[in-house]
Every structure is written in structure tokens, then in C-alpha cells.
Write a structure and sequence with these properties.
Elements (H helix, E strand, L loop, with lengths): L14 H7 L7 H8 L10 H9 L8 H13 L3 H9 L2 H11 L3 H15 L9 H8 L7 H17 L8 H13 L3 H15 L11 H15 E2 L2 E2 L4 H23 L4 H8 L1 H15 L2 H4 L4 H17 L5 H14 L7 H16 L3 H8 L4 H14 L10 H6 L2
Antiparallel strand pairs: 1-2
Length: 402
């Protein structure tokens, strides 16, 4: 959280305002020495301001002044030294005790936001399982701003631990409920990010992975990117939502690969038509040159994730995927050396589709393209197939375009 302007008050001792408004090098030695006596680490933020603010947790009287002070403290946690100091004075314990006592939504939102920030502060961390559970209980709220901060807290924890034992079935179910029911795009996007993060590198226990994760992720994704049933990725928020959805589905597929049972892939295949329909929309969007170029890292990721997921599911040839993918390949082939990773990804997926098709079906679909374009794409596939261990037999199709 960031705020642009603050009005000076007696409570903040002036130190914190100096850090924003005065260059330390401009202070004389005597003033600098006096200020440093109350400073937090190498910052000019005041220890006494933090302590005075936290003392109010013992008997909370919520008002605009306290909200302003807490917002200021929240901004302060962008500094690593402040995060370290808050751990030194046991802020997680103080904060969680307050969360159990008070019900003011704005207070809860800010306190959990501060907790999420300090867990990301790249310093020695100490937070107990009981304290974690106190924060996670706030998933029961219907306040979307609190929920966003709780999920930020979960994401921070996922970066701290390789094994997320504190994430229970109840927590996963609540995330799924949010994805299925929230009307806040910010909350939906953050929830998708949260699911993606806790599933990465198999941090989430296998017993908690189920098909409802996929179904709810797609529901949330469609809610964000479909505007009056018209698909677009024309905003940063929609692009982030797409990224997190594909990360979540990719992580689900990673579990499929490492698990001995077949239930995960069977369940996904049984409802894969919804995912495939969204992928068709995505590919159609990027088959337009104005949406594809200039190529970004996000586009490269989208295509890589789509390839990985379709191959994991062993999806058969689908014309509605082949058409936009072929258009994309034709566009990127003109500057492939500049975007070799994307070019290779698209070629590999195109080869995969060809292997899972018949030559009659391919000829039927290639006929929709101008002859010179079809010949160019066929040449590209033959030239690059061995890079991906494919062995294509497209003689019938090629003969038709001679």
C-alpha cells in the first residue's frame, strides 16, 4: 500500500515525514544524530511512532487518526528494516491477538495487509501456526478487501515454505467458493494467483487437489475476461487473470504427471471442453497481428502453457485450435529469429496436432488458407519436426498443394 501525501501530526514525531520529504544528506550532523536515535535501521522512520500505534491495539478506539497511522505503518513496511523491526517487537503476536478481539473491517484489512508485507520483507521471519490460523479464519468474511489481504498473506507464506501443511481442505474450499461466487475482479484475480502459488512445486498436499480447482478457476477467469460475452485481453488485469489461470491449470497438470493414480486426468478430460473453448478464444485473439505483435513474455508463457496442458491431456486434433494456431505461426515465421522461443512453441504444438489428425482432416482445414500460405506452413513443419521428435507424414496434403 502506498499513499502520496501525509499531514504532519504530533504522533509521528516528524521522522517519518522527513524520510519522504527531506534528503538525509541535507541534514546537519547534529540533527541527523538526534533523529537516528529513534530511527528504525537505516531508515528515518520512528520506533516510537510504531510503538505508540501498536499500544492502541490494547484498547482499540477506531477513528480516522488511527486509520491514518496504520496506513502509514503499512506503507513503512515497504522497507526491509521496518519489517525486521516489527518482527523484533513481535508484531505478528500483537496483530493476531488484536484480530481475535476486534471486528472493525478496515482495521482487520490493514493489519493483515501489514502482516502480508512483513512476510515478504526478506528478513528472518517468525510466525506460529496458531497465528497463521487466526489470519486464515478471516476467509470466512464477506468483505472482499479483507479477503484480498488474506490471500496476499497466503501467497507470502507459500514463498516461505516448501510444504504448506497449514493449508487445509477448508481453506481450499473457501478459495474455490470465492472463485465461483465473487463479483470483484480484483478478488478473483488475487484468488487465482493464490491458488497458483500454493500449488506450485507441489507445495499443496496431493489429497487437496481436485477437479473443482479447475472448474472454479475457469469460472473466475471467464468472469474477468468476458465482457458482455465478448472475449478480450485488452487490459493488464485481464492479462494477469489469464496468466494465473494458466499457471493454476499447468500446476494441476504437473500433479497429474507425478501422481500414480489416474483420477486427476480422467476428471479433467471429462470436463476439458470448457477449458478447450477458452483456449480457442485465446488463440483466436492472438491470431490477429495487432494483438500478437509486439510479442511479450506473457504471450510466450500463454503459448507454452497451452502446449503443455493440451499435451498432458492428450487432446486430439481440433480444427478450431488448428486454424488460429496456424495463423499465429504464419505471423511469427517472418521474424522467428527474434522470438525463437515462441516460434518453437507454436511449431511444436502444430506438429502435435498434425500427429493427432488424419491427412484428410488436415487437407480439409489447410484448404481454408491461401495456397502459398499453406505451402509455407507445411514447409516449416517439415523443416522443424525433428527438433521435437515428431515424424510427420503429410505427403497427401503436400501433393494437394503442388
Amino acid at each position: 500500500m502506498e499513499k502520496d501525501n501525509y499531514e504532519e501530526s504530533e504522533n509521528k514525531t516528524g521522522l517519518d515525514f522527513l524520510s519522504n520529504n527531506v534528503n538525509v544528506s541535507e541534514l546537519d550532523e547534529e540533527t541527523n544524530t538526534k533523529l537516528r536515535g529513534d530511527a528504525i535501521g537505516e531508515t528515518l522512520y520512528s520506533q516510537s511512532f510504531v510503538l505508540k500505534t501498536l499500544l492502541q491495539f490494547s484498547d482499540l478506539k477506531w477513528d480516522e487518526d488511527l486509520e491514518e497511522d496504520l496506513c502509514f505503518l503499512w506503507d513503512m513496511t515497504l522497507e526491509k528494516d521496518v519489517c525486521k523491526y516489527l518482527f523484533e517487537i513481535s508484531f505478528p503476536t500483537v496483530a493476531c491477538s488484536a484480530l481475535e478481539k476486534y471486528t472493525e473491517n478496515r482495521f482487520i484489512e490493514i493489519v493483515i495487509g501489514i502482516l502480508a508485507n512483513i512476510l515478504c520483507g526478506d528478513c528472518k521471519k517468525s510466525i506460529s501456526e496458531d497465528e497463521v490460523n487466526i489470519v486464515l479464519r478471516e476467509l470466512n468474511t464477506d468483505d472482499h478487501l479483507i479477503l484480498i489481504q488474506v490471500i496476499r498473506f497466503i501467497i507470502a507464506l507459500s514463498h516461505m515454505y516448501n510444504d504448506l501443511q497449514f493449508i487445509s481442505k477448508d481453506v481450499v474450499d473457501k478459495l474455490i467458493f470465492i472463485l465461483n461466487n465473487s463479483t470483484s475482479n480484483d478478488l478473483l484475480t488475487k484468488s487465482l494467483e493464490g491458488l497458483s502459488e500454493v500449488m506450485s512445486d507441489f507445495k499443496l498436499d496431493r489429497s487437496l487437489i481436485n477437479i473443482e480447482i479447475i472448474k472454479s478457476s475457469l469460472t473466475a477467469y471467464k468472469s474477468v475476461v468476458d465482457d458482455l460475452d465478448e472475449f478480450s485481453l485488452d487490459t493488464k488485469d485481464k492479462q494477469l487473470c489469464c496468466k494465473y489461470m494458466l499457471e493454476t491449470v499447468s500446476n494441476y497438470c504437473a500433479y497429474i504427471e507425478v501422481c500414480d493414480t489416474n483420477d486427476l486426468i480422467i476428471e479433467f478430460r471429462n470436463c476439458s471442453n470448457v477449458f478447450v473453448n477458452e483456449i480457442i478464444k485465446l488463440l483466436n485473439w492472438f491470431s490477429l497481428e495487432e494483438n500478437l505483435v509486439p510479442v511479450t513474455d506473457e504471450i510466450i508463457f500463454y503459448m507454452s502453457a497451452v502446449k503443455y496442458i493440451l499435451e498432458t491431456l492428450n487432446i486430439n486434433y481440433i480444427s478450431d485450435i488448428f486454424f488460429p494456431l496456424t495463423k499465429i505461426l504464419y505471423i511469427v515465421s517472418d521474424f522467428k529469429d527474434e522470438i525463437i522461443e515462441l516460434f518453437d512453441t507454436v511449431v511444436e504444438l502444430e506438429c502435435y496436432l498434425c500427429v493427432h489428425s488424419t491427412q484428410e482432416d488436415l487437407y480439409r482445414d489447410f484448404k481454408h488458407f491461401p495456397k502459398n500460405r499453406a505451402k509455407k506452413i507445411l514447409a516449416i513443419l517439415y523443416e522443424n519436426q525433428h527438433k521435437f521428435n515428431f515424424s510427420l507424414n503429410l505427403n497427401y496434403v503436400q501433393d494437394k498443394f503442388k
